[in-house]
Every structure is written in C-alpha cells, then in structure tokens.
C-alpha cells in the first residue's frame, strides 16, 4: 500500500481469520535521535503476517512513530468483540519533509491543553511541524526570562494567559514524543505592537500632521542601535529555549506609513541614500536580524516579503510563501522565483484554514498541489512542503480543534502522499473513516463532508 | 434601563459601597403555569435598593425566570473578593414573543447533552423557543411508540443515535425550567426519505425513462389513503408527546420531478383536473395534514411555500419565512404578503447561521430588522418574531455550541430589545461582556469580534 495517508477499514465480510497476532515488534535504524528535525527519516515498513506477527520498522525512531500510528489505524473492532487486522505489507514514506500547521497564540490565547490536543491530532495525520506564531501585535504571551516585562505588560493577562518556561518545555516534549518539530515564530519588525508595551523605545513613534508624535506606534525602529542589542538578547534566549534548528523570523506586512511620518527615520533614510524606498529600511533591519540569528548557529524561515525585498539570506533559508489565497497564479509565480534563486520554499497560500466558507472547503485544499509551478526538477526539490495556517482572529480554545480538524487532514495527505492521488472525490471515503477514528479517540472535530454519522457522534458532548 | 438585552459591567472605579444586599425576593403574578407558551408574559421588574434589598418581580413565572437571569448578570466580582451589584431599577420586556433557535438533529445526530447545553445558552440570551427539526431525509432519530420501525430503520443507528421517550421528556423538562418552548418539526411531504425506510409504501416511487420504477423515492405519495392513516396516527403520537400548542409541519422544498414520473400520481392529477400544476397536489396533501392536526386541537407553523401555494390555513397559523438569505427584498415582500393575508409570521431568512463566512457576521444578523417591510401597524403586529437556524449539514456535537454562540446572541437582542438599538458598533461592547460571561460559566463559545480575550479563555480546554 503506497501513497494513501489513511488506511481504510478492512471489510469484515471478505475476511477469513487465519491466526492470532501474538507479537508486535518495533525496530528502527540508527541512534535514537533526541529531537525531530527537518531531515529526519520518517520512512517505515509494516509487515503483518500470521506466522511472523507484526513488525514495525522505522528508518529512524521518527519513522517508527509514524509506523505505530499507521499500525493502530489498521486495527478494527469487530462485532464479535475481537480486534482484527489484515495480513498486509506496507512501505510508506512522506513526499515532503515539512508538513506543518501554523497556530497563533496572540490574537487569542490558546490554552496549553488545546495545544496538546492539536499535537495529538497532528500526529494522527502525520503532520510533523507545529509552527508556533507565539506573539503578535495583539499580545505577547511568551514569558521571557531576559525580558520579563514583555509578557508582564504585553500579554492579555500575565497570570493565566502566558506560556511559562515549564509550559513551553511541556509543549516541546509533547511534540517530540509525537515526532513533531516546534518551529517558533517571533515576527518582526512589523506585528510587534505588544512588544512595545514592555520594551519602551523599541517601536517607532508615528507623527501627526502637526509634526508631533500622535501616540501611535509603528514597526520596530531600526535606526536605534539599542534595539539591535535587545533583538540579539531576545533571540539568544529564544535559541536556547526552543530546540529546532529553524526559527521563523516573520518579516511580513511591514507598514511604511508610520516610518514615513517620523523625522529621525526620514533623516536616517537620507543618510543611507534610501530615497523614499522603505523596503530598503525594512531590509536593513531584517539583514541585521538574520545576521544575529546566523551567529547563534540557527537557520531561519522568513515570510516571502523578506525575499521579495532582496535581503541577503543564508543558503539554507526557507522562504514561506503565503500571498494569494485563492489565486494559484500568485503563489506559483512566487514559488518559481524563490526556487530559481536557489532558496528552499514552504507553501501556505492555499491553506489558510481560518478563512472559512460554507461547505467542504477541504476539497480545494486537497486539490492544491505544491509542485504546480514552472520550474526545473532541481527547483521542485527545493519545495520542502507546506503549512496549513489557523490564524486566531476568530479562534480560541473552544473552536481550535473542531474547526481545524478534519479540514487540515486534506493538507496532511497532500503533503504526505503521492502526487497521483489528486481528486478529492476519491479521498472522501478515507477521510470519513479517519474523521470517525479521531472522534472515537475523543477528539472533538466537526463533520467532514455533509450529512452523515460516526459511531461515536452521540458521545461528542460539550 | 430599557431595551438592552445584556447588562454592562458596573464600573468599580465609580462605585461607592452603600450596603450589603441581605434579601433577594422573587415574586410573580398569577398561577404558576406548567408549560411556557406563545403568549406567556416575560415582563419583569428588578429593584436593587440598599434598604429594601433586591426584588425580582415577574408578570408570570416565566417573567420571573427572565428577571433572575438579568439579576445574575448584574452581579460582578471585585478584585477584593466581593460580589458587587449596583443600585438599579429595571423594567424590561421583549419586543417579540417568539425568539427561536432552529436545531437540526437529522443531518447529524445531536447528543442530548449538546441540546441541554444549547438550552442553557439560549436561556442566558433570553431565547424562548427551541425549534427542533428532529427528522429529515437523512435520518429519523425520533423513537416513535406507534411506529418503532421508523427509527429502527431510519435512524443512523437505533442504539445510540435516537431520542427515546425519556430523552424527549428530559429535553422538554430542561427547556421548561428555562422558560423555553419546544416546537417540534416533522417536515413533510418532502424531506422524508428516511421515513420511507421504516414505512414501506409511504414514499412515491420514481420512474425512469424506461417506464419502470428506478429504485429512487420522492415525497410522500398523497394518492394513497393509507398514508393519511399513517400521518394521523403519527401526529396523534406527536401531539401527545410534545406539549406546545404549536407543531411545525414543514412543507418546504417539495420536489415535483419524481411525482411527474409516476403513472399513478399522473392519473390522480388527471382525475382531480390539476393539469401539470404539482403545487396543487402538494396543497392537497398539506390540506389534509393541517386538517388532521386541527382535529388534534393543535396549531401549526408552516414554511412559507405552504402559504405561497394557497393551502387553506387556520387563522392562528404561523407562516415561517425563510427564502432569501442575503436579499432582504425577498423576505420583506413575503412578510408583506403573509401579514396582508392576516397570518402571523416568523422570520428566519437573514439568520441562517450555518451559512458561515469569515469575520463577525453577527453584525449583519444584528442589523436585520423584522419590521423592515411595507405594511400597516396591524400587519406589523402579526410578526411574532423570528428564529435563527443552525442546519446541521456541517454541525455535530463538536461544533454546535461554539459555532452557534455567541453569533446567535445578535439575533436574540434584535428580537428582545427596542428597535432603536440598531447599530452593531454600539452593541459590540455589551456582546463582548456577554460572551465572556458565557465562557466563565463553562460554555465553550468562539470569539465574538476579532482579537481579544476573556478572563477565562485559558480554561477553554478540549
């Protein structure tokens, strides 16, 4: 069985029982790596045989974990109080190595238990990266040891709506046990309003028509050397507290309006002969940021604007393509450009799950193919995969799981399975089975594709 | 305080404590009525006075229940471990007497606990009618004593996905204690595919181009006298098991395609000189149905097509307007026609909450006004109110509460409060307070209007 993310139920009518499964052996190659990483081997083999028993063999510990998940999905419960599994041989591996879900704990605080449940649900669908967009304009729930004022002043509530050291560690550990990387994002220089509350002087004061500061603040002020000291210290802490090789540096949607009103910014622009091109000021900031992170021996992911605005990037940089939700020509052009420049790329544009609409929108997610762009084979190899995004303007702990799943399962299969599996109509049966499996395990998820039922629907209680 | 459904928090800074509240008295006029009804009096008065204490006075037991809810919302918790309430005098009453929520337990089974939670949430927002669309094409979860085969064969699963006698009674009682009517809907002659599974002969066999039955079934076959015996017996049971004076008889979206293929239907049409006008056959069925229900001493609500197709209706019939979700001219024209003919009307068109879209769609719900149609004062008086509808094609126990609330609160206030409260921008602060109040009481609801937080968001765990 190759290329199908979810196993189908074995048909009990066509079954003849040939033996009892006595042994289940789990093996994997190599050392037991401590943390999952971009290049981890997730390949696995499963053999279920009436004589040998079951063998789950991973090309690494991470592959063994993927194999265990599939193995559990092969088992069904019969009406005769027995658990059944078919004789089978499976060789399975992912098409893309980065299969992520972006969560946003700034627009609304996401309870730690909700993040755990998200990781459980991701693991069941072989998603392997939790992209944790942890802070933004609206709130700064990350409790920094170096700069405790950031969350004390910038969180919604520093008592209950923050992620403490032990919370972060628990989330990293919970993810690790499920072979899921946690790539944290501290987005700057825009999207930082909440940072300014606990770090006076960080943000750019905007000026009104009367030539006086109007009390509004814009992006981080890149003209002040002190701000880069702060950035260096903050990212030093981030690099020590998050284990992944990659840190997401953001860099999207920097608004230039405020910068343009500020006299000292304008003076700096003149000194540097930037003219009126504020993308050059943005790049000045991001260049310093990526240099700092490089010195910390970390690699980085950046939103596509950073690439578009010609920042000099490390060769292992990942450019995250997000613009053009419903316009595949927009994102496919961008993928061409990014990979032509030799950078690795991640795709999110077609998978903004927060942009809800009526009906089974997972079908269009499913039929969005990351390789749909003009490029050489070499360029295609630079596509690491993609991420579904659940921005949290309208998401909290009450609807995070039920709204994200099972819709995101479509993205998970697109990124794991063969490109030949292309039609949602042929996937819907598998997806229904998988949705019911999740409900059976107590995960509260919305219906997948119109009227119907799962055997445990009646127990979906609030 | 008149016309605001939700109370705002008293500002603790402007407060001076003048005494302790020692007594809370609840009184109401008249006999204690057993079941809530269309004309129940929900008016109440609250006086909170440092000398007299608190008096909650209802014009009936139902008004006292409304007053108790408001009273509970007046109380806030201070930072000094005290509960606070302002000195206040409130005279409050609803603008419309029918303020409903339609739930659909056929497209997906809704767990009984989810229905309880729905009733809790309705009560907090002074909604007073649960319109229970209990069966439809997809499943028949109502366990009938007279026709047990209907749910045995027509439910998704007769063991766990049915509403037994004790379940129905528990739901009626739970609603009664919250001053909420339960108006059940058994929609016919269309929307009855699942009925046919347990009642052979009920539905019309459709014929293929070869002049033979093609195995597909259409609406109830109105040409068979036996079917009206069945209908009489079924509705006799319904009238005995549901307590409200009104039963919703459906009558929407009857498809004529199948009827037109069936030879005995066509023969019947000829005999009755209906020509090719199948609305006359539909009306023939509905006329017999309403006559049966009239003989049971029940009143009825019907979807607008029944009125549009000229069925002779009892004078106390309620016509339920649902067509034209985004086109107010469609529903306002219909409201004019229905009330001009002297019938009472309910509005649902602008309030199909299952038709989700990105962002705070409650704002457009809020700004939809049932009196926005051309008609005399007398016609306006025939508007009983309205209902929000949560059709369950994409709803199950996992997302019923979080998706319905707090969006439906906008409909609740529209139907309760003064018409002068017209702008969503002026309501949003109240709505945020109310949403947080619901979360504090453990009701898992999605965010109301973009980024923000409630003090108990961190406890919204799955």
TrEMBL record, chains A, B:
Q: Specify the Glycoside hydrolase family 20 catalytic domain's residue ranges.
A: 96-418
Q: Where on the tree of life does the source sit, at the highest rank?
A: Eukaryota
Catalysed reactions, semicolon-separated: Hydrolysis of terminal non-reducing N-acetyl-D-hexosamine residues in N-acetyl-beta-D-hexosaminides
Q: Which InterPro entries match?
A: Beta_hexosaminidase_sua/sub (IPR025705), GH (IPR017853), Glyco_hydro_20_cat (IPR015883), Hex-like_dom2 (IPR029018), HEX_eukaryotic_N (IPR029019)
Location of the Beta-hexosaminidase eukaryotic type N-terminal domain: 17-74
Q: Which GO terms describe its molecular function?
A: beta-N-acetylhexosaminidase activity
Taken from the record, one Pfam family name reads: Glycohydro_20b2
Q: What is its EC number?
A: 3.2.1.52
**Could you tell me the keywords of this UniProt record?**
Glycoprotein, Glycosidase, Hydrolase, Signal
Catalytic residues (UniProt): 253
SUPFAM superfamilies, per the entry: (Trans)glycosidases, beta-N-acetylhexosaminidase-like domain
A GO BP term here is: ganglioside catabolic process
> Which cellular components does GO assign to this protein?
lysosome; membrane
Family label:
Belongs to the glycosyl hydrolase 20 family.
What's this protein's name? beta-N-acetylhexosaminidase
* Organism the protein comes from: Blomia tropicalis (Mite)
């Amino acid at each position: 069985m190759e290329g199908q993310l979810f196993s189908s139920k074995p048909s009990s009518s066509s079954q003849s029982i040939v033996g009892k499964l006595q042994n289940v052996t789990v093996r994997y190659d190599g050392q037991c790596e401590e943390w999952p990483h971009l290049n981890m081997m997730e390949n696995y083999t499963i053999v279920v045989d009436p004589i040998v028993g079951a063998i789950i063999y991973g090309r690494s510990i991470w592959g063994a974990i993927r194999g265990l998940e599939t193995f559990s999905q092969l088992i069904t419960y019969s009406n005769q109080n027995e658990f059944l599994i078919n004789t089978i041989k499976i060789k399975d591996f992912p098409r893309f190595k980065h299969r992520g879900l972006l969560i946003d704990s700034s627009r609304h605080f996401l309870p730690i238990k909700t993040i755990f449940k998200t990781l459980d649900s991701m693991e069941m669908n072989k998603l392997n990266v939790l992209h944790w967009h942890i802070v933004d304009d609206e709130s700064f729930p990350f409790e920094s040891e170096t700069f405790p004022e950031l969350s004390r002043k910038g969180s919604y509530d520093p008592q209950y709506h923050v992620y403490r050291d032990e919370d972060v560690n628990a989330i990293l550990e919970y993810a690790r046990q499920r072979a899921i990387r946690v790539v944290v994002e501290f987005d700057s220089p825009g999207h930082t309003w909440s940072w300014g509350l606990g770090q006076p002087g960080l943000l750019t004061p905007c000026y009104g028509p009367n030539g006086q500061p109007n009390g509004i603040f814009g992006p981080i002020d890149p003209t002040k050397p002190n701000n880069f000291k702060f950035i260096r210290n903050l990212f030093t802490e981030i690099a020590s507290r998050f284990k992944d090789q990659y840190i997401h540096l953001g860099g999207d949607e920097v608004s230039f309006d405020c910068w343009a009103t500020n006299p000292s910014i304008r003076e700096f622009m003149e000194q540097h002969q930037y003219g009126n091109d504020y993308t050059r000021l943005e790049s000045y900031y991001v260049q310093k940021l990526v240099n700092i992170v490089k010195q910390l021996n970390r690699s980085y992911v950046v939103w596509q604007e950073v690439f578009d605005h010609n920042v000099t990037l490390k060769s292992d940089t990942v450019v995250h393509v997000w613009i053009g939700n419903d316009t595949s020509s927009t994102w496919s052009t961008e993928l061409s450009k990014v990979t032509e420049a030799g950078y690795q790329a991640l795709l999110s544009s077609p998978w903004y799950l927060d942009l809800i609409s009526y009906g089974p929108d997972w079908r269009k997610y499913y039929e969005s193919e990351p390789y749909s762009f003009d490029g050489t084979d070499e360029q295609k190899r630079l596509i690491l995969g993609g991420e579904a995004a659940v921005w949290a303007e309208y998401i909290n702990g009450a609807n995070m799981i039920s709204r994200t799943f099972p819709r995101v399962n479509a993205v998970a299969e697109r990124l794991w399975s063969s490109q030949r599996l292309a039609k949602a109509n042929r996937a819907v049966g598998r997806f229904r089975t998988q949705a019911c499996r999740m409900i059976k395990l107590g995960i509260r998820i919305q219906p997948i594709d119109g009227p119907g039922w799962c055997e445990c629907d009646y127990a979906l209680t609030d």
